[in-house]
């Protein structure tokens, strides 16, 4: 019988895990006021001016789970992108998209910690500050909307799946969301102007551009209901000053409808007929929208 040393086993396990694909945790990336965790995946021989993609998991999720749940990192790294996977440490492992600290620039919430992660990567790898993107699902999609609204100068574009409009989850400090409306049951309906004013209110006086938005939602979603998709499109159509132009049916697959606003460069929606919570990440469509 051959006995293997503990160190040998640990080394072999490490090599096996690396072959499967793992994330590297980064500590001390900034003051991290929200106390969340940062994980990264960097291409071999990463080039200067590489794009950055922030990938945000949903409630009850984790950085590693989202990383392993789709092929976003594999394809994005082939296109030279550096991946950041934040991981929530809050109750239910959701993102804070509603308290004042998260809806104020540098207010001490999750968005500030995530932006510190981006700045760390820009400084550490000489990455391209003009090509920072977000992909998010469910609570991660909600945070993607918040990041686009609160830090419009940091992010270039987002691709978000089954989320809600920025500001939808806003609650008074110290008061949790209504437990009967935990993820947005579509009870808040506003005009496009009102939603747009919400976004503009996060950065009074800001005159720069806002991130381009690609928004996905399933018609059979009973957790974050379809009305939230409508409100999300209202919000960003007003912010970008574009109107609905046309539908493209069966795009990117049967049962999906692509909803184009303006020329489709700044805002596009995807309505997924019969799909519940959540719409899967469409990697090629996201990366193409980002220009990668």
How are the secondary structure elements laid out?
Layout: H1 6-20, E1 24-26, E2 37-41, E3 52-56, H2 63-68, H3 72-78, E4 82-87, H4 110-125, E5 132-137, H5 139-150, E6 157-161, H6 192-201, E7 212-218, H7 227-240, E8 244-249, E9 256-261, E10 267-272, H8 283-290
What does this protein look like?
- This protein is of the alpha/beta class.
- The protein has a single domain, classed as Alpha/Beta hydrolase fold, catalytic domain (Rossmann fold).
- It contains eight helices and ten strands.
- It is globular, with a radius of gyration of 19 Å.
- Residues 1-20 have low confidence and may be disordered.
- One of its GO terms (cellular component) is extracellular region.
- It comes from Zopfia rhizophila CBS 207.26.
- InterPro entries: AB_hydrolase_fold (IPR029058), Esterase_phb (IPR010126), Plant_Biomass_Hydrol_Est (IPR050955).
What is the CATH C-level name? Answer: Alpha Beta
Helix content, binned percent: 25-40%
Please give the count of helices: 8
Q: Which CATH architecture is right? A: 3-Layer(aba) Sandwich
Strand order of the largest sheet: 1-2-4-3-5-6-7-10-9-8
The profile of the biggest β sheet is:
10 strands, mixed
CATH topology: Rossmann fold
Number of strands: 10
Shape: globular
Secondary-structure element series:
HEEEHHEHEHEHEHEEEH
Structural class: alpha/beta
What's the CATH H-level superfamily name? Alpha/Beta hydrolase fold, catalytic domain
| Percentage of β-strand residues | 15-25%
Number of domains: 1
- The span between the termini is 53 Å
Features:
globular, disordered N terminus, 8 helices, single chain, Rossmann fold, alpha/beta, 10-stranded mixed sheet
């Amino acid at each position: 019988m051959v006995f293997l040393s503990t160190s040998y086993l640990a080394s072999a396990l490490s090599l096996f895990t690396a072959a499967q694909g793992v994330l590297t945790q980064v500590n001390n990336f900034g003051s991290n006021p929200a106390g969340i965790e940062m994980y990264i995946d960097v291409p071999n021989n990463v080039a200067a001016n590489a794009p950055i993609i922030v990938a945000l998991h949903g409630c009850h999720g984790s950085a590693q789970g989202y990383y392993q749940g789709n092929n976003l990192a594999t394809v994005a790294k082939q296109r030279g992108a550096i991946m950041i996977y934040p991981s929530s440490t809050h109750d239910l492992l959701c993102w804070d998209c509603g308290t004042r600290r998260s809806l104020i620039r540098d207010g001490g919430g999750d968005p500030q910690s995530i932006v510190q992660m981006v700045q760390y990567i820009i400084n550490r790898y000489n990455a391209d500050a003009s090509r920072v993107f977000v992909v998010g699902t469910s609570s991660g999609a909600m945070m993607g909307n918040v990041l686009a609204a609160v830090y419009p100068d940091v992010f270039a574009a987002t691709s978000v799946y089954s989320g809600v409009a920025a500001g939808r989850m806003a609650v008074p400090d110290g008061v949790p969301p209504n437990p009967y409306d935990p993820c947005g049951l579509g009870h808040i309906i506003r005009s496009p102007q009102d939603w747009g004013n919400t976004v503009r209110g996060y950065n009074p006086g800001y005159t720069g551009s806002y991130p381009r938005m690609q928004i996905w939602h399933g018609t059979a979603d009973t957790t974050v209901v379809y009305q939230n998709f409508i409100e999300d499109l209202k919000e960003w159509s007003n912010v970008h000053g574009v109107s609905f132009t046309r539908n493209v049916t069966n795009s990117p697959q049967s049962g999906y409808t692509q909803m184009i606003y303006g020329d489709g460069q700044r805002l596009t929606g995807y309505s997924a007929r019969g799909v519940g919570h959540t719409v899967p990440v469409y990697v090629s469509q996201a990366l193409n929208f980002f220009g990668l």
